[in-house]
Amino acid sequence: MNIHSLELLILGLLLVVAVASSVARRFSVSYPIVLLIIGLLAGLIPAFPHVRLTPEIVFLVFLPPLLFAAAWQTSWREFKFNIVSISMLAVGLVFFTAFGVAFVIRLFLPAFDWKSGFVLGAVVSTTDAVAASSIARRLGLPGSVISTLEGESLVNDATGLLALSFAIDLSLHGVAPSIATEAGRFLWLLLGGAIIGLLSGLIGSFLERLGEDGPVAIALSVVVAYGAYFAGEVVHASGVTAVVTCGLYMSRQSSRFFSPVVRLQATAVWDTIEFVLNGLIFILIGLQLPYVLQGIAGLSPIRMMCYGLIFSALLVVLRSVWMFPSSYLSYRIRRHLLGQQCAAPDTRTIILMGWVGMRGVVAIAAASSLPYSFPDGTPFAQRDMIIFLTFSVVVVTLVAQGLSLRPIIRLLGLRKDDGQNCEAAEARKLLIAKAIELLKTRRHIDDESHARAYDDAIIQYQQLSELIMDCGIYVPEVHGQAEFRQAMMLDAVRSEREELNILREGGRISDMIFRSIEHELDLHESKLLALR
After folding, report:
1. Alpha-carbon separation of residue 385 from 125, 137, 294, 296 (angstroms)
2. What integer is the mean pLDDT of 208-220?
3. Which is it for the CA torsion 308, 309, 315, 318, positive or negative?
């Protein structure tokens, strides 16, 4: 493929990502699912350029910034609070899935012995951070479910990597590593990755404090994301753990080293990076279909499709079976050993957690990284079947589970909890009360000529406070007044915007002044819309 063909392909893929995502949002469908389906359909067209998604592309290009962005948005408080539940999934479920697949796969695929079955189980044992963050947040899942799912997908890479390494040593090399060796390797993957990530975060935070220039700060954040991943891999720790730790730390520190302007710019840029890379990765997953079909050429398509569906169902069953005892065990540990004030396991939530186990690009990259042959030169006969089954699981979990989540949530009677809304309302009122207290104190000690300015500012804060409703409390008169005032203020801001456009079109103000005032209006309108 020459440079011009590559340029056209990239432009075409970006156009598809933008258009398909807009259509998906209009019909309230998660855009990764739509892009995956488009990729599958495009992969069936012989004339369409085929792009092989190699493990190097996945792990070295896509994964670091996507993991960094996911970690940046993860709540450290919720992560710590749910660490027992996350560990049950990120550690216990990974090995339960690997061993479960190893012993069940032989029932419908006799060509697999338990060793090659363990390799397959290790490959598909980890949920995907990209898939979890891209789909779960858009479906209105309860906050505790989202926190646990994202925590699981961010942490389980180390255990999945350990299980896969153990399976390859056992199946391909005939070596059974000792428990002590594997425990030490696992600890290094986690602790080594966490240490590297923390050091990278400290360095990144220091560099970000050196300047206030937005483009420089954003470029540094991208460099730090890749740097943390590569540093973790260089010392043979978990690069994913490193970049996740770095993202968590820098997210907590960002309010100290980012100025308000830089923070707005960085958020916009990183949202764009995440959207583009997410879109490309899901459409590229679909485009792997021709390469997957090459490996199973000559086999019955109907039979292979049945194998893929049965195997996908097996993983759902294994996850659901694990969820019930692990949920109750987690509750007992958190409640009685750690003293956490957590709710007892809810059967509806357990059922939902058992259903939500989406796999993604990491599983495909892991399958593609398997060696072609044993050390003695004998071909690894099950490699192509492992790749096909992995691809089938990714497609089924993303499409079937992703599309069915919304009706399942409604069927189970689950809804997004109001806890975060309550916290947000309380926090805003506390901040406004603090600001009013400061203004009143300074009004009494400052020069009387400034009294009018203080009074105006205090009134504005008091009016803003009236727009903030307490969650769970409905007062019709106040609620209606707040809605009316908010709508009135939005109309006023939009009328200012119309007048601003008239002034520019009439040549009365320059484009530089126009953009400056427009930015002020954008911030004001965004603040009003955030209170809805």
Report:
1. 16, 33, 11, 7
2. 81
3. negative
CA 11 centroid distance within chain: 25
Strands, E assignment, 380-504: none
Q: How far is CA 466 from the centre of its chain?
A: 35
- 37-91 pLDDT, tens digit each: 998 898 888 878 778 888 888 888 888 998 898 888 887 888 888 889 888 998 8
Q: Are the beta carbons of 345 and 331 closer than 8 angstroms?
A: yes
Backbone angles phi, psi at 299, to 5 degrees: -95, 155
* Ramachandran angles phi, psi of 387, nearest 5°: -65, -45
Gyration radius of the chain over CA positions: 26
DSSP 401-439: IHHHHHHHHHHHT----SHHHHHHHHHHHHHHHHHHHHH
pTM of the full structure = 0.82
Model confidence at 279: pLDDT above 80: yes
Report whether pLDDT(102) > 80.
Answer: yes
Where is mean pLDDT largest: 175-189, 232-246, 441-455? 232-246
C-alpha 378 chain-centroid distance: 40
Contact criterion met (CB below 8 Å) for 238 and 163: no
The residue ranges of every structural domain in the chain are: 3-55+82-170+264-372+379-416, 421-530
Q: How are the residues of the chain apportioned to helix, strand and coil, as percentages rounded to the nearest 5? A: 80, 0, 20
Closest alpha carbon to 168 in 126, 122, 119, 117:
119
Q: What is the pLDDT of residue 174?
A: 63
Listed residue (243, 388, 236, 421) closest to 301, CA to CA: 388
d(CA 84, CA 89): 9
Say which residue the tokens 């991208």 belong to.
Answer: 222
pLDDT score at 477: 45
Closest CA to 309 of 386, 400, 383, 381: 400
Cβ neighbours of 299 (radius 10 Å):
14
Share of the chain above pLDDT 90, in %: 14
* Amino acid at residue number 353: M
Phi, psi torsion values for 172, nearest 5 degrees: -90, -35
Give residue-wise pLDDT tens across range 301-353: 888 889 999 999 999 999 999 999 999 999 899 888 888 888 788 888 888 88
The answer to whether the beta carbons of residues 74 and 86 sit under 8 Å apart is no
Phi/psi at 379 (nearest 5 deg)? Answer: -60, 145
CB 382 within 8 A of CB 120: yes
Closest CA to 284 of 531, 474, 48: 48
110-119 long-range Cβ contacts below 8 angstroms, 24+ apart: 111/381, 111/382, 111/385, 112/382, 112/385, 115/167, 115/170, 115/171, 116/171, 116/382, 116/386, 118/167, 118/170, 118/171, 119/164, 119/167, 119/168, 119/171, 119/172, 119/370, 119/382, 119/386
